[in-house]
Amino acid sequence: MLSQKLQDAFNTQINKELYSEYLYLSMAAYCYNLDLDGFANFFIVQTQEEHFHAMKMFNFVTDCNGKVILKPIAGPEVDFKSIIEVFEKTLAHEQFITKSINELMDLAVKESDHASASLLKWFVDEQVEEEATDSKLLSKLKLINGEGHGMLMLDAELATRVFTPPAAA
Ligand code: OFO
């Protein structure tokens, strides 16, 4: 049984995960408009991951006999200056999500809610991976200055990304 405080915090986090899905869909659209279909594919896969994150929390709240309360999803940014800016914003967004997950974990620990803490451990680990992926891509983009032959190689590499739901999910 979730406390009211934890239930509210999970519902807020579900909204943030769904907003993340929406933000990355907007970034995918931007990449398609530049004919960078591989980069677009990277963000489409990211939307699938974010949807998975939201549903993982959705299922947890309902399994705990809690009430999922879906809030309005804000409109994401639609105009970007460059692909480098897109990845700067992606990394900044993931850092914001990491902070949010950590605060949720702090609350679960404070309330000695072991089930919530166990679920959130998965998200803590996932955020390390997400930030590392975005940070590496941003570094590569800066190395090639977001242009030229390097961009085509990176685009081809990102075209191969596929969404693989974690086995235990
Ligand atoms: Fe991109 O992260 Fe969800 O949680």
Structure description:
The protein is mainly α and 169 residues long. Helices cover 75% and strands 0% of the residues. It has a single domain (4-158), classed as Ferritin, core subunit, four-helix bundle (Ferritin). It is elongated and about 55 Å long. The two termini are 21 Å apart. The model has no long low-confidence stretch (mean pLDDT 97). Bound molecules: hydroxy diiron-OXO moiety (OFO). Hydroxy diiron-OXO moiety (OFO) binds at residues 17, 20, 50, 53, 94, 97, 123, 126, 130.
Helix-strand blueprint:
Layout: H1 4-33, H2 37-63, H3 83-110, H4 114-143, H5 148-158
Bound molecules: hydroxy diiron-OXO moiety.
Hydroxy diiron-OXO moiety (OFO) binds at residues 17, 20, 50, 53, 94, 97, 123, 126, 130.
Count of DSSP H/I helices = 5
Say what the CATH topology is. Answer: Ferritin
Largest sheet: none
- Element pattern in H and E: HHHHH
Terminal CA distance reads 21 Å
Shape: elongated
CATH superfamily: Ferritin, core subunit, four-helix bundle
Helix percentage: over 70%
Q: Which class in CATH terms?
A: Mainly Alpha
Count of extended strands: 0
Q: Which structural class do the helices and strands define?
A: mainly alpha
Backbone CA Rg: 17 Å
Q: Spans of 5+ residues with little confidence (pLDDT < 50)?
A: none
Task: Work out the strand percent.
Answer: under 5%
CATH architecture: Up-down Bundle
